Amino acid sequence: xxxxxxxxxxxxxxxxxxxxxxxxxxxxxxxxxxxxxxxxxxxxxxxxxxxxxxxxxxxxxxxxxxxxxxxxxxxxxxxxxxxxxxxxxxxxxxxxxxxxxxxxxxxxxxxxxxxxxxxxxxxxxxxxxxxxxxxxxxxxxxxxxxxxxxxxxxxxxxxxxxxxxxxxxxxxxxxxxxxxxxxxxxxxxxxxxxxxxxxxxxxxxxxxxxxxxxxxxxxxxxxxxxxxxxxxxxxxxxxxxxxxxxxxxxxxxxxxxxxxxxxxxxxxxxxxxxxxxxxxxxxxxxxxxxxxxxxxxxxxxxxxxxxxxxxx
Length: 312
Fold this sequence. Notes:
Layout: E1 3-5, E2 13-16, E3 33-38, E4 40-41, E5 45-48, E6 51-53, H1 55-67, E7 71-76, H2 86-95, E8 101-106, H3 109-112, E9 120-121, E10 138-139, E11 144-158, E12 177-179, H4 184-191, E13 201-203, H5 210-215, E14 221-225, H6 226-235, E15 242-243, E16 248-258, H7 263-279, H8 281-288
Parallel strand pairs: 3-7, 3-8, 12-13
Antiparallel strand pairs: 1-6, 2-7, 4-5, 5-6, 8-16, 9-10, 11-14, 11-15, 11-16
């Protein structure tokens, strides 16, 4: 996995000069592209002890190169206990001028909807910004999405007793399937063709990783987010597990979001993402981060995760 080692003085503001080939001189005075990224969202974005990395960072770098602009990354911490609409908590980063774009955003309609009644919130912790600077409430704004640049999908992961290819979930009926209660995999197993997989489905306790259970032979299959299996393989390279290669249409696209004031920039970003998708650079960036790349699917903004498709 690619990592960028930063001096301690620069961990608060990551400045990465990224010019398109042959355009450096022409764009030397161009204002930086500022992107907010979650510092604790492996494998998509992270900043740990001066090491910055992740797929969202790689995409932001590639977009900046396409635009011929230097990139400045503003690292923030997601406040998981803070209540309020996702659109409000995200849009204030742009409204306050912290950044022009927020990367790694799930493109789901409910997360983009216009805040009702002018809802306000304070900024999350942002590296380099003092606590006093974050005390004033800021009004949320409607978010506008870019094209998707990755689909965060779900896949069956197979243990040693599963042989052959898996072309659909029908092929798993003979095997013991294990998931965490109420996880995406559990919901899929329950919903698929109105319970067709429930006969051999079971749960692990909340403290047990179902990937561990399959690796130990306690079960044959678990259904999990593709990126979680990627991370598991990095930590357990000898585990006797393999990806099924079957990507289920359950999940969401990931993209950038911004507010209305940056509509022109958003058009440029979409053009850059189209170029990167067609050239294969997005897939190359994902592989460099040891992330299984799943191309975004249409429509880029989904109304839900798609679980209703599993009952058909």
